[in-house]
Known about the structure:
Blueprint: H1 7-10, E1 63-68, E2 74-79, H2 95-103, E3 106-112, E4 122-129, E5 135-143, E6 148-158, E7 160-169, E8 174-181, E9 188-197, E10 202-209, E11 214-223, E12 229-238, E13 243-252, E14 258-267, E15 273-282, E16 290-299, E17 305-314, E18 321-329, H3 333-340, H4 346-362, H5 368-385
Helix pairs in contact: 3-4
Amino acid sequence: xxxxxxxxxxxxxxxxxxxxHPAGSFNLEDHAVPSxxxxxxxxxxxKRLRGLHQDTxxxxxxxxxxxxxxxxxxxxxxxxxxxxxxxxxxxPVDRVSARxxxxxxxxxxxxxxxxxxxxxxxxxxxxxxxxxxxAAGHLLVRAGQFSKAVVVVDYDGSATxxxxxxxxxxxxxxxxxxxxxxxxxDSVHVVTQHARVGRDAELRHIAVxxxxxxxxxxxxxxxxxxxxxxxxxxxxxxxxxxxIEHRLFVDHTAPRTKSNVEYKGALQGKDAHTVWxxxxxxxxxxxxxxxxxxxxxxxxxxxxxxxxxxxLEIETGDIxxxxxxxxxxxxxxxxxxxxxxxGIAEEEARRLVVHGFFNDxxxxxxxxxxxxxxxxxxxEELAEHVGRIG
Length: 390
């Protein structure tokens, strides 16, 4: 497989036409400036992207990167021309991604060697220090055969940031890959992530979105061999005026592969807006696969809006199972009544309901420090608004 081939091309899969996943191209001219009428852009507030989708220069340098690499893990910045980017088979599918690919002067490469079991997480922290100039980044994470590791990417500060992330798991690798978007409330972040999963490899992808004015994260995965597994877990919390958008696409390109996508979000405050678009494509070559996707949203106050659209595209009936679910609702009055009837004050009862809502995903993250931080962050969000919830 060459750097310019998609997995579908490398495996000689039949082409699929769908408005949910348009054809990719490295040529920026093939990506028109979106108008907002396109299916992949219709939920995104384009006017708030500060020109990332148009032609604003991506040459800003007002950010710092700190790396805490676990022993045995290599983490280096490589000039784009000398890098291995493209090894995941990803080709930009929208204008922001194509612009970021073109503008990135270097690629930050994280490599986990084959057969290594790395106990400590490798953490990359990106701190934005200004909004005046937009910037572009590119991250490539490669997990060698039969390796096991955790990689965390942590964003904070203020930035206008466009980015591509590639994640590659060779055969038998196990990787937990975490992104934490804890930006200041003035930041704009548009990121496209793509994972290539080898034979019998296991990817656990975790997305945590808490901060930012506009955050749009598009995440996709496909498979190079049988037995691969992808689990995508997400937690997000939107406050007044925030727009948080997650777009997920799992492309089952090989037989007997598995995927599970599960995201949960809460919203509070006027004009808080979350978007979740899930899509699973089961190609005719992908016999015997098992997949499920779900999204649950808890609306805590009036004036908040959650859009949730699950999709399944099935080209073969020879599968083990496929399904999807989506819910959006307010507090469960029965839960509140149960807690209050046992002497728990109303505000504390509401906190407990929210924590219980998120707990199922948080406890499955598998990174204790991250789990504790997420619980604390949710508590901070609730502390500012709990009196108005209901």
